[in-house]
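seq as requested:
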Amino acid sequence: MRVISEIKKRFFVVKNDLPGMADLISIANSNAKPVVMAQVFFVYLYFSDEFVAHITDKLGDVFNAHSSPSIVTRKDIKMLLTTYLEAKEIYANEKVIRNWLGRYLSIMRETNLLVRKKQHDYVLNFMGIEAETWLFFTLHAHFSDIKLTDARFLKAFQITPERLPKAIERFDSVKSAIYKMASVENGKQEVIVSTPYRKLDEWIADVQ
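struct tokens:
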């Protein structure tokens, strides 16, 4: 799996607001589907690779600017990369750019965040989060007393405050938890999470 091989190449510091190494090892040893594992590891790749983060953010801007499915091409993504390299005054030859682009597209297809439409055309699918991926990160936030609206993983999946209610609607009645939007002081929206589990590793042990 390309996304896992990319993670193994670099050392990254796991922040307190993301699941730690023990949780990553547990989910990796569980029965989680390959796409779930790809999405989980993608979050850590996003926060450890500035190029992945920048290009993903730019694609997220396109995704969040449209209500209907957005299509990007390989050429579009290459342009985003070369523009960023020029802005950073980083020289890279065509072979390096082509190889990086190939790896990035492979990772994004594995995570199902880019869905191939034609040979070089892709549908942006940032809302294509698997239920188990969602539970892994949201339950960690819940057990860590982190408000779901502040959960760090949302940025990797380009889920803005405006998109969050749609995500909640998708997962409001998954098997392991219940999510409800609620208004709090000053008219702000918060997410109430209810789950029969007491710890993240209890849920991971039940992943099928």
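The two ends are 20 Å apart (CA to CA).
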